[in-house]
Amino acid sequence: MSYAVGSDLPTQPQSPLRFDESRVSHGLTFEARDGTVLCLDLLRPPGDDAFPVVLLRTPYDKVVLRELAPGAKDGLPYDHEFMHSLVRRGYIVAIQDVRGRFNSDGEWHPYIYELTDGFDTVEWIVDQPWCDGNIGMIGRSYVGYTQWAAAADRPRGLKAIVPIGAQPDLFASGFPIFNGVFNLPMAELLLAMGRRSFQIRDFMSNVLHETKDYFRTLPIAAIPEASGAPVPAWWDEMMSHPNRDAYWLQGSYREKLDGFSVPAMNISGWYDLTLHGALENFRAVRERGSTEGRERQRLVMGPWAHWADVSAGNEAVDFGPSAVGGLGPYVTRFFDHWLKGEAEELADDARVQVFAMGANEWWSANDWPFPDTDFARFHLRADGQLTREEPRDEEPDGFRYDPDDPVEGAWSMHNGPIDDRVVDDRPDVLVYVSEPLEQALDVAGPLSVVLHASSSARDTDWHVRLVDVHPDGYARFLAHGLLRGRFRESFETPTLLTPRQVERYEIDLGGTANRFLPGHRVRVEITSSWFPRYERNLNTGADNNFLESAATIAEQTIFHDRERPSYVTLPLV
Fold first, then answer.
1. Which is the catalytic residue, given 272, 419, 442, 468?
2. Fewer CB in 10 Å around end: N or C, the chain?
3. What is the pLDDT of residues 150-169, one digit of tens each?
4. Fold adopted by 374-572
5. Is 272 in the active site?
6. How far apart are CA 458 and CA 500, in angstroms?
7. 4-168+253-365 belongs to which homologous superfamily?
């Protein structure tokens, strides 16, 4: 066996509670390198001693994060009890409004200033009398991204980071763009955030739940106007860069990971729209980091959506009691080890802890993918079959993709194992399914698909979904990948398609850990849209799809013959 089985995340002792209460220091300020004044609050133990500091840099209002009602369950790190438990254990929690948000000066431009402002913030904190020289960072989503952005240039005193759902590349790793395709709910998120403060009540719980009428607006650059909101300057800037150019690179840190040495606990969920970030960052530092940095990486993947460690499934699937509840103590031990020099047991933990759905247990190993993984091809075959056998001379399959009638399905950031049967009756979704399994199939590792396909259009999108079909017909969604046709060779230099010419596409589906139980079937779905999670490719080959409003129907063909096989590669353990 290439992995070990456990009932929960490692739970060796955490540092003891030292204080009964915490106090707040409001409105601390400092100047970033360009003179912009940034503001932060401190949650800290009583007294004036110096302590290790855990920093959050957020666009979501430091007051909301600091004062989340006791008992509210919003996932790490925003759970009230977790944050105040850190204080009672002898940490200072520093929460900063990023540039242009709430109390911090300047103009907010998503992502662009976070590398320099994050570096400057850490360098300032390490020199403060209340900091003992040891700084960690934690946060989810954008606040996960700000950690890697700050760490990329190695500021003094930064000893550990715990990014939850953090993307390394703004154009290719999930948010705001995934392999060249814009995440449409990003528009709702950013418009609801407003210029400096929230435009809706209870922001954290009321965004990214449902389809908005303005999602259908074309071109998508006109969404702010259609929603009734003023058009922020950064939106126009974002919409004017449809390729991975210098604009997107200034907010990406992927190229800065050579020689990286900061300990990182990369956390995400199998149903998190930013799961690619945790997997890619762990792999990148394991391959390109310093010798010490490679050993200091951790990866934790649970059966969660974007709200890590909150839900153990949904009304149809229950992943069991070990699926939630263990993340807080594990993170605390990580900080104890790197910021206090305690919790030496951490050194004995496996680097990788993943929750295997279906088996409903935690699997651990020292690398990802697991050692001795067998990467097996499951081929798309005639008559909708999915088999280990290679194809023969077979006729291709086809469908019509109409941008005015896109494939629609559940997309909420709060959803986990959705039922994918919603697409069963659509003629524009090709489905390939295995025979019922005679014995369990353990799949854990990165997932990829090779498609040989053609389109009548000059540009189009390919979406691939992996599904676990239960004996009762429940089609439990597992993983998704997509690729815009023009970016098949390069995100920097796109190449339009030659109509009806067969092309080879390699599509990354991220990863999973799942036990396909006996009687279950493996299913692969191929289509050209997933609305409203992603913008529609209008198939015209326009220079900038973000500014395009005309649409044309595309005739799509998937080949799966001896010379042009199409297949999904599953990591069997």
1. 272
2. N
3. 999 999 999 999 999 888 88
4. Jelly Rolls (2.60.120)
5. yes
6. 9
7. Alpha/Beta hydrolase fold, catalytic domain (3.40.50.1820)
